[in-house]
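Hey, resending since the last one bounced:
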Amino acid sequence: MKSSQLRKFYLAFIYYYGAIYSDDAYKIIKGFYPDFKEETLLNDLKKRVGKMTRQYMVLETDDDRYVISNDLFNDDDLDELFYQQGNKPFFVENDLDRYLDEFGVDLPKEYDNLQKYLDKHIKIKDKKMKEQLADIYLLMFYTRIRNSLGGQSEINDMIQEALDLCGIEDLNKANDLIKHIMEAYNNTPMITNRGYSPIEMRKKEGPVDLSNLQIQMGDNMKNMMLDGELDAQEMLEQIRNADLPEMMKNSLIEQLEKVIMMKNNTGKA
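The structure tokens again:
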């Protein structure tokens, strides 16, 4: 196999997984080319160590393996990525041409609903500009989430940015926008899932154990309750009556009670 052919695989690995060890890379290539020799891969990677390339870099490990990595990642990024990936399976397209075509992947269908919502609510009167801005946002959202190592904090930031983009302050409209964002998010393939979306991973891993899950309310929500934009007392009653895992419910109740106490102490109406 020529070096140029291997390079196409390296770019696909970066697109789907962010980074990959050479032994895993060999297994994937061999799946497409049964006669492929590991020595061919290792010799090619050895020549690329430390050289400037487009989009990827090759690193040598202490255990005589190589890592093919996104060239923007530092050591801490790689540690975090491999930690989040754990033992998750690698997503591999059955069709080789499609697998190697990093620019031929369509956005998940859930993005259609998000785009329609943005087209309707973005704070710009010019229809063409709204459509262009929605297209740009969708592509940035897809790319950012696909390559994110930030987890929940990343999606929280993006939700706030979308709310600001649309100028939404009404709680019902905000919930509607968040619903569309989360549907798109949950169907976005991610490097931390080795090319699978969160929904696909849940199907593979089975039901998620939520019994010990706790949720931390963001500063924006707390400020909205302190300013009276959200009714903390009403939300507290809703949480108390909600069918939620015990630790999650207790955590939210504790946080809401603290907000209510802060509001009473500051005298905000």
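The chain has a mean pLDDT of 85.

Sorry for the duplicate.
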